[in-house]
Specification:
It is a single chain. The chain has helices spanning about 15-25, 40, 75-85, 165-180, 200-210, 255-260, 310-320, 330-335; strands at about 1-10, 30, 90, 95-100, 110, 115-125, 130, 145, 160-165, 180-185, 215, 220-225, 230-235, 235-240, 245, 250, 285-290. It is an alpha/beta fold. It folds into 2 domains: about 1-130 and about 250-335, FAD/NAD(P)-binding domain (3-Layer(bba) Sandwich); about 135-245, FAD/NAD(P)-binding domain (3-Layer(bba) Sandwich), CATH 3.50.50. Helix 1 packs across helix 7 (about 310-320) and helix 4 (about 165-180) crosses helix 5 (about 200-210). The protein starts with a strand and ends with a helix.
Amino acid sequence: MDTHDLIIIGGGPTGLNCAIAAEKAGLDYLVLEKGVLANSIYHFPVNMTFFSTSKLLEIGDTPFISHGEKPTRREALEYYRRLQQSYALKVRTYEAVQRMERTPNGRYHIHTEKGRYETHSVIVATGFYDTPRLMNVPGEGLAKVKHYYDDAHPYVGQKVLVIGAANSACQVALEIWRKGAEVTMAIRDEKIYKGVKYWIKPDIENRIKEGSIKTYFHSSVREIRPREVILETPEGAITIENDWVLAMTGYLPNYTLLENLGLDIPQEEPRIPVHNPETLETSLPNVYLAGVVCAGMETSKLFIENTRDHGELIIEQVRGSLPGTPNTELLKVKC
């Protein structure tokens, strides 16, 4: 069994940030990632541009240089790949964590698809993009239903229903409409979400107003069928012809994994895993949360840019809690 000071679960920007801090602190650490490096970003739309500037996405005190002020998905993948290589970060990809157990001596055993590891401390940096928020309607499992958007080309000349009213839904509707799709939107509320970015909101509102994108407000999906969709609208149920459904309904933390790790998860929303917001330590000693997973279902509150301090904050605590490691705070007092 491999033994380490620290296991970091998740190889996205937050996990890599924690790994850089661990590398600088001289800790014996390992990052376990279920997919590719920066897996969530890899599954973003191919032509996506970040809302944040490259400077706000920087980690590890390493400049992020992009061609424009706001980097693209491709530039972000290149940046995080170079970070991993430059720091020689110890990352094992394609190794999904399954569960965790606490040992009698207070350490942890982490079980993956490929093996088992023992560690003193754990950082959970799993984000939320891997688990879509399902509608739980008949037909949602059909192959025509997508919870992730990749590229506009497959939808040229197709009848597409876009579900949602936030940034992703509005961007997707506009992009595929401009590429030649016949787009319909289903929105639960009376209007587009107020938090939609200022350069997107008037565009989608004008397309809806002029009738280019048919939109049903106060409406939801009742059933999805191979060639049609039934919507529940204020005027009653209606059936529309349909080739594809793009359900941009948001994403959630992987609560099944968090529970298998033994974390304390409230059942009531927003289901924020129990942790100390000052130290980021969970109810399990030496087990920490990092990044957007700290927000539970409130996924719009935390981003890469406002959780960049999590790595150094946690690693300082991990270093101080390891047996035989001097307490840096006490050393400062003695000096």
